[in-house]
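Posted in: Structural Biology > Protein-Ligand Complexes

Title: Requesting predicted complex, LLP in pocket

I'd be grateful if someone could produce the 3D structure tokens for the following input. Sequence and ligand are given below.
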Amino acid sequence: MHHFQYKQDELYCENVPLREIADRVGTPCYVYSHATLVHHFTVFDRSFEAVPHLTCFSAKANSNLAVLRLFSTLGGGADIVSGGELFRARKAGIPSERIVYSGVGKSAHEIDYALEEDILMFNIESTQELEAINERAGRLGRRARIALRVNPDVDPNTHPYISTGMQKNKFGIAVDSAFKAYEYARSLGHVEIIGVDCHIGSQLTDVTPFVDALKRLRLLIDRLQGAGISISHLDLGGGLGITYDQESPPLPHEYADAVLRELQGLSCTLIFEPGRVIVGNAGILLSKVLYTKRSPSRNFVIMDAAMNDLVRPSLYGSYHQIQPIEKRSREEQIVDVVGPICESGDFLARDRSLPMVKPGDCLAVMSAGAYGFTMSSNYNSRPRAPEVLVRDDRIHVIRARETWEELVRGESIPDFLS
Ligand code: LLP
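-- Reply #1 --
Done. Output follows.
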């Protein structure tokens, strides 16, 4: 469900025609629907209302301050993986006690910042990190609340780049070594064990891998409790997929039913770190056709958005639906939708059947609300696109388009060159 729909052949975001956004804000531009964000967050969160839980939105999926603030007002927290994300989360007003911190490479500086902010929990990914957090906490006269991120070695059946819970992935501590690592953690003076954490991958379209991972975690938790290590928080990460094309991932309540069935009798606060399922279909990338051209073997539609704006098709071969914002009955043709960047890997779609377009037409690249803007870059010195939040019939620019001046901010020419 999302609020990007045609009304009389014009594509709207809620009650704003996308044409109006293209004219007023310019293209390329990210557009998010407030009603869709609220709906997705609420549906996910409510599916666990029967048990104590906290929904920590995964900031890496979409870290705009307005988006983070919105989820905070709905009772959500944040899953962060860097000092920068902690800074954003706090600036957006997310309370520290609703922040969990994962990631294999937390630096001393980042650890200190998170300790000072007194976040809910560090999800620790190695013994060395455990020692580092213990040491930093000791220096600051604090105790760090921790979970160990357990790598359960299950195959999430997703793109290899976004699969994280298999032995060959860099994430977490192998499930077979986890008990020992917990015993070691117990012996350290400046950490307090409160949880077990796990995140097996992203864009999962089946509950089976989640259930398999849970079974392994459950055994570990029982063993820990038996050894007097009490676990009050179980963080199940994120990973629930969305429909980009033909996928039919489990609905949040189906995911919740499967999870809760496995966890019967366990009295823990559950933590979830959903990203994509909340924001993915709540955002689009709006882009304008600059030119069209035909080579002997292909038709190209050259857009003003490129791989620096949305890298998912280039990086993972991901599919994003592309829709014209003005629907007219036009002949379809097979095209490659490409950007202005100087690489042949710069495409938004390949071999796609689209109605004939001409310069000035606008296209909406759908399902771009997750890992769209957050993965964008300045490659080819292209300023990053603005972000717009639509609420009913109002447009709010929640991030301005970058300027050329901003591109060179912080750069300097040393004296010997001047
Ligand atoms: N928790 C942790 C520890 C994670 O690493 C991730 C995603 C999430 C939660 C949120 O996962 P989600 O619910 O969004 O699936 N750039 C890729 C996705 C990378 C996901 C990385 N980790 C893409 O565009 O598909």
